[in-house]
Amino acid sequence: MRWINKETEIYCSFAKSSGNVGCQIMNTAFYYYGLNKIYKSFSVANIKDAVLSARYLNFSGFAITMPFKEEVLDYVDAMSEEVSWIGAANTVVNNSGKFEAYNTDYMAAIKYLSTLTLMTMITFIFWVMVGMQKR
Predict the structure, then answer these.
(1) Greatest Cα pair distance in the chain
(2) Which pTM value belongs to this model?
(3) Closest Cα partner for 46 from 63, 62, 61, 67?
(4) Which strands sit side by side in the sheet containing 37-43, from one edge to the other?
(5) Active site residue 69
(6) Residue pair 15/43 in contact by the 8 Å Cβ criterion
(7) Which helix (H) or strand (E) holds 124?
(8) For residue 40, what are the contacts with CB-CB under 8 A and spacing of at least 6?
(9) Same domain for 43 and 55?
(10) For residue 101, how many other CB atoms are within 10 A of its CB?
(11) Residue 12 and which of 21, 75, 112, 117 are 20 to 30 A apart at CA?
């Protein structure tokens, strides 16, 4: 087991109302693999202040939940191609002081959809469209 020290990388999530599941999963994985990293969730009211804090404290990265997935793009330095056309991110990585936004929800959805049959895909798209009409 490693102790938290000045070399420990800090990761977090920013949500309107934070939970513990992400902390349990991420910190268990960090411990299991012997990584000198910690993960903490934060409830925030203002994503701009949260991102500025993460930048000032040199966090290694953070996750973003609703309602901040679009607004966070105003406070990052770069975004993946997918984020540019989706218009939302759920992950920000600190790459040598440059905050880069990604959408791993999109990546997981594409991977899942690639396993579906054509009929299942058509049914899925139908229900998505029905759901969007209720929005």
Answers:
(1) 54
(2) 0.79
(3) 67
(4) 37-43, 9-15, 61-64, 91-95, 98-102, 78-79
(5) yes
(6) yes
(7) helix 118-133
(8) 10, 11, 12, 23
(9) yes
(10) 23
(11) 112
Residue 23 to residue 64: CA distance in whole angstroms? 14
Q: How far apart are CA 27 and CA 32, in angstroms?
A: 8
Report the CATH number at residue 25.
3.40.50.10860
In a domain, 2, yes or no: no
pLDDT, position 27? 94
Structure tokens at 110: 């594409």
Q: For 34, list phi and psi in degrees, rounded to 5.
A: 65, 35
Q: Which helix (H) or strand (E) holds 105?
A: helix 104-113
pLDDT, one tens digit per residue, over 85-131 is 899 999 999 999 999 999 987 777 777 777 877 777 778 777 777 66
* Inter-residue contact 44 to 12 (CB < 8 Å): no
The alpha carbon dihedral of 112, 23, 63, 33 has a sign of negative
Q: Are 116 and 95 in contact (CB under 8 A)?
A: no
Same domain, 42 and 95: yes
User: Other CB atoms closer than 10 Å to residue 8's CB: what's the count?
Assistant: 14
